[in-house]
Amino acid sequence: MTKPRLLKKILSREVIMPLFRQYTALPCWRDVNIDELHNEVHENYIIVLALLILLERGRDIIQFRNEATSDATLPLRLTYTEACPDLRLGGQASTRLRCFRNPPWGFYMKEEFYRKQWQLNVPYMEMDKMGLSFIAKHTNFESDVILPWCRSKQIPPHMSEAPRSGYGGYSRVDPVYIHPDYHGFRAPLEKDLEDLYRNEIEHLKSFNGTVCPHLVTLLTTFTHKEKRNFLFPWATCSLESYWETEKPQPRSVDNIRWFSKQLVGLAEAVKTIHYPPHMEHKYGRHSDLKPDNILWYRTYGDDPNGILVVSDMGFTVAHHTLSRSNDHPATVARTPEYRPPELDTESNSTISRKSDIWPLGCIFLEMVIWFLGGKEEREGFKKSRKEEEPKYGAMTYTFFTLTQREIQSDNESGEQSKFHAEVKTSVQDCMNRVRRHENRSQFSDAIVSVIQESMIVVDPSGRDDMLTLHQKFSDINHKCTLEENYCIPSTHSDGL
Q: Distance (Å, rounded) from C-alpha 393 to C-alpha 346?
């Protein structure tokens, strides 16, 4: 789909009408109402006119209009006959176009038209609209299509500082700046979609920022030059990088409330994956929650602190009600540091949505540690978790420790080895120290209690589900919003 907004700005009425007045001196233009022609051309033939002007054949717009060879018919196909190359409509290769015969076009001019049409017929990218909501759509682009990415010198300063490329999971990640006249992604990303989300959520069809603002928004997908592409809004950085570059303000009430709001938002995002209201009778699971898969957008509405968003839905799976997401541990994605213990202890069991609760609790605990004491205390916490894991014979930073035990088996051998998991002592000690931290508050105490009692729990059945957790964090956030003393750090003792 093409929406040549930029061309329409360049070829304004003030530019086109003087050209048309010059052309009226030609015999074929003498009876033309140039006002009516301008309106028609500006609406439906602006790319064609631009092509003709570049080829110094602007006067031929009359022939193209008479034959209805408009912007909608582009790109034209270049076919080769015994005589010379010819340009024809895509679906009508056997039909010759009169507009290229009277007056006649030569070999070079036809090839130039074919080549330049790709430069001007740039696709317009947007989301599909379903009722009042938006979903990503997929487009197969031809290899000659020029995508609306701006050159480096056109990229705004805040984008130019971003990493130029990288790899995430199994994919290459490249930042692109789309010319603002060639995309319509701004509308569905505006903050007023929060109201739209709450009123029309049952009509949404996919996980994205219109379902929950704390879920990454897939803008569109497309195939170009045999490569499959996903287009997302460019994030400032991951949560992992955010911890490294940003400085917390644990004694600022406004920042504490922003921090609380992000915890609620991330909980809402995972809740939406687990209980997708737009996918009836289905339940989802992320399966790879970690700081690298949580993104920070510096700019979000009028919030100067931005927003944290759950991303990398590549491992997300949705199941029908009857299955309730029970998968074998071997099929579940593993990020070693944040993996739940059941992946190592429940080899004959199944994995459910509760397997997302553990890593989310680990991430939330690190967020609290960072917020109270900065990156140094978070790094100290990570070092304290470093232990050799007997199952793999390697040093790990997991939040649980494994011990091997012998258990009675029903098989003929009588015994088989099994691993037993416990929350690491360093993790328990850290949660206790958070409650004595110089920047602790009733708010931070409440958050750590939820993490310790309902999230970082070895037995999956002892963890709360996301409906319950989202409500708990919402209640804490409500109290944080209403009571300033609830947020303010009180008496202090030692650090982490």
A: 19
